[in-house]
Amino acid sequence: DAKTTQPPSMDCAEGRAANLPCNHSTISGNEYVYWYRQIHSQGPQYIIHGLKNNETNEMASLIITEDRKSSTLILPHATLRDTAVYYCIVRVEDDKIIFGKGTRLHILP
Amino acid sequence: EADIYQTPRYLVIGTGKKITLECSQTMGHDKMYWYQQDPGMELHLIHYSYGVNSTEKGDLSSESTVSRIRTEHFPLTLESARPSHTSQYLCASSESPFWGANTGELFFGEGSRLTVL
What we know:
The structure holds 2 protein chains of 2 kinds.
Chain A: E1 9-13, E2 18-23, E3 32-38, E4 45-50, E5 55-56, E6 61-64, E7 70-75, E8 84-91, E9 103-108
Parallel strand pairs in A: 1-9
Antiparallel strand pairs in A: 2-7, 3-4, 3-8, 5-6, 6-7, 8-9
Chain B: E1 4-7, E2 10-13, E3 19-25, E4 31-37, E5 44-51, E6 54-57, E7 65-66, E8 76-78, E9 87-94, E10 106-108, E11 112-116
Parallel strand pairs in B: 2-11
Antiparallel strand pairs in B: 1-3, 3-8, 4-5, 4-9, 5-6, 7-8, 9-10, 9-11
């Protein structure tokens, strides 16, 4: 079973920031938080990952709470091309990688 | 850009036939995975491998089998296809270890869409 809980769907207006929450209350100290997204039926695309600190790259920002029990993926200026299913995963290096149901993000024009 | 390839992309086949879905990667990754996904549904891990001669079953029980004789190849075989095997099969690989310069991210192929009549 997936170790994370995400809302099944969210809407966001185009041009606004999309904030996608993820609960991982049972995360252990050596587990990383990864985010992927899947557009239509293509293979999921890596977005960002982190362990304890907040992270930012050209695609998104990842905010991890101090207790590491939850995180938020932020897409700063959502576009229609960001419409996808977003998956939050926790894993250690030699884990099998389980995706869960993810959040279906709709960007509204 | 990911260098992981799946063939065939689409396959329509009759019940009882043996099929092999090919997956190859040129990145030298030790870890490889097979996922099964029905339209609009979640990804299910069916097989994974940590390197040559290593294969493990995933969380979703599958009648398929896999082999890992070479690092770059991770083929999936169905000995006798049935309509219940109709689905999309996605292959992925990841680098290891995933600290330092490695992100540990998964790289996916474009998928093989199987239809069994």
